[in-house]
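From the shared-data thread, chain only:
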Amino acid sequence: MIDPLLLVLRTFASCGSVSATAELTGYSPSAVSAQLREYQRAVGMKLLVKDGRGLRLTATGRHLVDRSDRLVSEWEHIRASALAAGDQTPTEIGIGGFSTAASNLLAPLAAHMKQTRPEVSVRVVEAPPARCFELLVAERIDLAVLIAMQADVQVDDDPRFEQITLLNDPWM
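Structure, as tokens:
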């Protein structure tokens, strides 16, 4: 399992503020600040510095976050293969997407999952593309459906995300 404090740091790096990190993780801003301080203390490196009224990553913090992408990716592969080896499925899955995708693709998928895999709890989140990426980094959702052209993140260049084309719209 990836240290939850590392996930808080990665989420902070992605969204850039303690308050946005708190909103994404479900913690209070003071809890996020305490977790960031605790992680910094635990790893014995200066990861954050004050920047006006907020915080920003140091070069060391940025390096740690960037290199942790491979760690998180490897953990996800290990976890998936372990579940498959034991013929198990995750007990919870979060899926997100823009309004049309949420209603036309994700809601029917959730209903299908409820019928075919009643042991799996499916949570559907309607959110714009940028928010979906933040929710993926914060591990609040596992899958996002979005229009790649509308995303602020270049998925092809970002090792944190895997892109699978579902549909090609000839009008776009």
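The two ends are 40 Å apart (CA to CA).
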